[in-house]
Amino acid sequence: MTMAARRTVFTMTALALGLTAGTAALAQSHGDLHRAVGAAILSDIASDRQAERDAKRQPYVSPGSGYGSIATAHGARDACAQKALAQAGAGAKIIGTPSANSMATGWEVEGMVAPATDSSVPFVCSVRNGSVTGILLRRDE
């Protein structure tokens, strides 16, 4: 047998032994992987269930942000005006001062916005538990 043939046989034998040892290690890590995936799935299920319970207890709380940062009628007017401007598009401006009416869990803000392409459009906005929860531009009025 030539030297090159011996090296090839040696390399093939070493490779086969390495694969056998690697297969045993892979089988062990494969079991660990299954346990880790199972634990992650159970953790996600528990988190989802807790979020559902929290949502039932406090249905108007903003997800992930607690009660938000809007704590005054002035803050509600400002936040709603910014949302109305964003929804109306570039070049829009607020006409007058929006009015904020107090509600049980926040404020209802009404005002006028003038988009760059249209005449003035009334808007209404809801602030619940410290966050803007909805805005509507009434283009049909």
What does this structure look like?
The chain is 50% helix and 25% strand. The chain starts with a helix and ends with a strand. The radius of gyration is 31 Å and the shape is elongated. The chain has two domains: 1-57; 73-137. Strands 1-2-3-4 form a four-stranded antiparallel beta sheet, with helices on one face. With 141 residues, it is α+β, with helices and mostly antiparallel strands. It contains two helices and four strands, in the order ααββββ.
In short:
By secondary structure, this protein is an alpha+beta fold.
Q: Which features characterize this protein?
A:
single chain; 141 residues; alpha+beta; four-stranded antiparallel beta sheet; 2 helices; 4 strands; 50% helix; elongated
Sequence of strands across the biggest β-sheet = 1-2-3-4
Unreliable stretches = 62-67
Characterize the overall form.
elongated
For the CA atoms, what is the radius of gyration? 31 Å
How do the strands and helices of this protein lay out in sequence?
Blueprint lengths: L2 H55 L15 H16 L4 E11 L2 E9 L6 E8 L2 E7 L4
Antiparallel strand pairs: 1-2, 2-3, 3-4
